[in-house]
Amino acid sequence: MSLPSPFTTVPDGLRVRIRLTPKAAADRIQGLIADDAGGVSLKIGVTAPPEDGKANAALIRLLAKSWKLPKSDLTIVLGMTDRRKTVEIAGDSGLLMRRLTDWLEMTA
After folding, report:
1. From 31, 59, 71, 76, which residue has the greatest number of CB atoms within 10 Å?
2. How, if at all, do strands 7-10 and 13-21 pair?
3. Does the CA dihedral 71-72-78-82 come out positive or negative?
4. What is the 3-state secondary structure (H, E, C) of 77-93?
5. Angle CA 83–4–15, to nearest 5
6. Which of 6, 77, 60 is nearest to 37 (CA)?
7. Contact 64/49 with Cβ under 8 angstroms?
8. pLDDT class for 32, splitting at 50, 70, 90?
9. From CA 72, how far away is CA 107, in angstroms rounded?
10. How many whole angstroms separate alpha carbon 26 and alpha carbon 45?
């Protein structure tokens, strides 16, 4: 793949770096954005406000719907109260990496 990837394999699945914008105009995945660490993150906006976990719940719903995965397979493992988040997807890391890399190339 020629583009840097927001995806990283872990033993029990895949981790995704995300830059979340709450109170956005629409719930949508906007593409890739360079992050502070020199990598890339998925830039995502949700209409939910950043209070009481509403934006985090909206993020999980949007990702599960976009990637056709059960919400129970997605967990925010870093950044619960930060715009920069890491979401872990449970499952076969190789299969998830291929599937989401293909998805990223189709949406880019």
Report:
1. 59
2. antiparallel
3. positive
4. EECCCCCEEEEEEECCH
5. 50
6. 6
7. no
8. very high
9. 24
10. 7
Q: What is the mean pLDDT of residues 75-85?
A: 96
Q: Tell me, what amino acid is at 57?
A: A
Q: What φ, ψ does residue 87 adopt, rounded to 5°?
A: -110, 135
Mean pLDDT confidence for 40-50: 96
Residue whose tokens read 């949508």: 28
| pTM of the predicted structure, to 2 decimals | 0.93
Which one, of 96, 36, 16, 60, lies nearest residue 8 by Cα? Answer: 16
The per-residue pLDDT of the chain, averaged, comes to 93
Amino acid at residue number 21 = T
Here the tokens at position 90 are 């449970």
- φ, ψ (nearest 5 deg) of residue 48: -65, 150
Distance between CA atoms of residues 77 and 93, nearest Å: 16
In whole angstroms, what is the distance from residue 33 CA to residue 99 CA?
20
